Amino acid sequence: MGNTQLIKKIKKLRQIRPPREWVNLTKKEILGEIDEKRENQLVGWLFTPIRKPAFVVRTIMVAVLILAGSFFYLYYLNSQIPQISFSNLNFFQNQENENLIASLQELETSLNKISFSLNNLKSLKDPKQALAVTEVVRVTANNGQNLLKGMKEKASSKKVLTALMEVENSFQELGETSSNVQIEIIESLFQDLAQRTLTKDDQNRLQKAKDCYNEGKIEQAMILLMKIGEK
Question: How much of the chain is in helix, strand and coil states, percent to nearest 5?
Fold first, then answer.
C-alpha cells in the first residue's frame, strides 16, 4: 500500500475502538439514530473549525467515536508486518515524508480543538450524557498514547519523530482535560443529587457512587450515577 493511501487512511480515522458500552450509550443518547450517509457527513466535521457552541457536543462525539485507533493505521500496518521496518518500506522519505508530517500536524490540531471544547460539556442539561462523552474521550486518548509509543520506535526521521511526539502530547493533554472535566461533573452531580428527593434505591446508588469515587473507582461511580432516576 502506498504512502498516499495510508495518509488518506489517517485522515478518514475510521478504525476506532473505544469502550463499547460507553460508545453505545453516547451514540444513542447524544447522536441519536443516524444513517451511514449522515454519519459520513458528521465525520467531516472533525477537520472543520469549531465555531458554534451548538455544534460542539456533536462534533466532540463524532470525533471521539472515530478517534482511538484512527490515524494509527500506520501502527496497524507495522503490526501486520512486524519483521519489516518502516524504513524498509520506504515510508519516511522525501516528499512522502513531508505529507505524513502534514497529516500528523493536522491531526494534532484536531485533537487540540477537541480538548479545548471539552469544557463546553459542563453546560449540558443532562450531565449523564456529558459523563459518557468524557469517558469515551479519556479512554480513547489513553489508547492513542499507547499506540504512539510503538510508532515512535519505528520512526527513521527526526522530523517524523518530533511530529509523533507532538501528537502524543496532544493525546496526553486530551486525556488529562477529559479527566478533569469528568471530576468536575461528578462532584457537581453529587451536590445536585444531595438536594433532591430520591427513592431508597437511588439513595443507595448515590452513596455507593460516593464511596467508589472516594476510593478512586471513577468508572464505577459514573455507572451508579447514571442509574439514578432509571425506572
Answer: 75, 0, 25
pLDDT tens digits, residue range 50-60? 334 334 444 44
Dump pLDDT digits (tens) for 72-99.
333 433 343 233 334 444 444 555 567 6
| Better-scored residue on pLDDT, 106 or 168 | 168
**Locate cell 500536524: which residue?**
105
Q: What's CA 134's distance to the chain center, in Å?
A: 8
Q: What distances in angstroms separate CA 51 from CA 24, 48, 55, 123, 148, one per listed residue?
A: 27, 9, 8, 16, 29
Contacts of 80 (CB under 8 A, 6+ apart): none
Here the cell at position 173 is 493533554
3-state SS class at 228: coil
User: How many whole angstroms separate alpha carbon 96 and alpha carbon 100?
Assistant: 6
pLDDT at 95: 54
CB 122, CB 186: distance < 8 Å:
no
Q: For the packed helices 53-65 and 36-43, what is the interaxial angle rounded to 10 degrees?
A: 110
